[in-house]
Amino acid sequence: MSDETQFEEFLKFQRGIIDEFRANAGKVGGMFEGSTLCLLTTRGARTGRPRTQPLGLMQIDGQDLVVASAAGAPTHPAWYHNIRKNAVVTVEAGARTYRAIASIPPREERDRLFSEIAAQQPGYGEYQAKTDRIIPVVALHPIDLDPDRVKHLGDELVELHGWLRGELTDLRRRIDDVVEGRADDIAPQAEGGNPLAELRSHCLDFCHALNVHHTGEDIGAFPVLRERFPALEPVLEKFAEEHKVVAELQNRIKELVEDFTPDQDDPVRLREEVADLANRLEAHFDDEERQLVTALNAMGPAPVRG
Q1: Rounded to two decimals, what is the model's pTM?
Q2: pLDDT band at 182 (very low <50, low <70, confident <90, very high)
Q3: CA separation for the pair 218, 282 (Å, rounded)
Q4: 14 pairs with which residues across the strands?
Q5: CA-CA distance, 177 to 193, in Å (whole number)?
Q6: Strand partners of residue 301
Q7: pLDDT value at residue 60
Q8: What's the CA gap between 296 and 62, in Å, rounded?
Q9: Fewer CB within 10 Å, N or C, the chain?
């Protein structure tokens, strides 16, 4: 039998399993009778077309998992390459269908999970013994999370962006008050308070907070996201470059505010620089929230702040 014929026979066998699964609310007979299966639909890494395959579904500590064993073949299965390109998948488990984001656990966590999986299903251990590659474990995180759940990391990012947006709005108001001579309209100052000094202090505080946020993303969140969601690599590189541009703009604004004298300096440049920062940040925050919140929420709850 030729390789092409064998492949056609395999596809026919797989389609039969899929049809039986869907016709019987996830129950399949024959060699898979008694096994817990799911149907995983991914998008082809090259074609972008939907691809569905039956897989064994494992659950450890309430987390749905699938294993890229390919029966111990020397190369990873196609669906694994697909999730590295596009991590959003559809899972059919029994009578339940849900969208999920597929993450790749780091090596230490993978080893722990695979050990537990092999203890429950020794066949996976046999597959690993057949191949030199490290068989991946993939976690499936539902996208439509329970609205009553605890706050997750993505939710915390949105909250932090909201706070930074508010601080930037306040900074722009303070600049308008100082350059237009509306010092008396500013919120009550401490006795002897200087509106320009207050502006400089607020500018430094805002720039410091923004720098801490972006540095935390660059050295904390982004490396973890790269490891767990390889498909995010291009957008993470884009965000890291945007952080550099924002940092340069921040430095220019700090210099302008530090040296600014309303009677001598043209307020137009200061306002334009801050408006440029505001526009860049708004676009950056919107893009981060659109691209990263789901992945961050999939990573777990936000830490409890004391």
Answers
A1: 0.71
A2: low
A3: 18
A4: none
A5: 14
A6: 152
A7: 93
A8: 18
A9: C
d(CA 94, CA 252): 58
Angle 222-167-154 from CA coordinates, rounded to 5° = 30
What are the φ and ψ backbone dihedral angles of 163, each rounded to 5 degrees? -65, -45
Residue with tokens 């395959």: 53
Distance CA 277, CA 243 (A): 11
With a cut of 60, say whether residue 62 has pLDDT above it: yes
Please give the share of the chain, as a percent, with pLDDT higher than 70.
86
Summarised one tens digit per residue, pLDDT across range 132-168 is 999 999 999 888 655 555 678 888 999 999 999 999 9
Among 16-30, 187-201, 223-237, 254-268, the minimum mean pLDDT is found in 187-201
- Which residues contact residue 300 at a Cβ distance below 8 angstroms, ignoring those fewer than 6 apart? 152, 153
DSSP 3-state of 249: helix
Residue 1: C-alpha distances to residues 5, 7, 8, 9 (Å): 6, 10, 11, 10
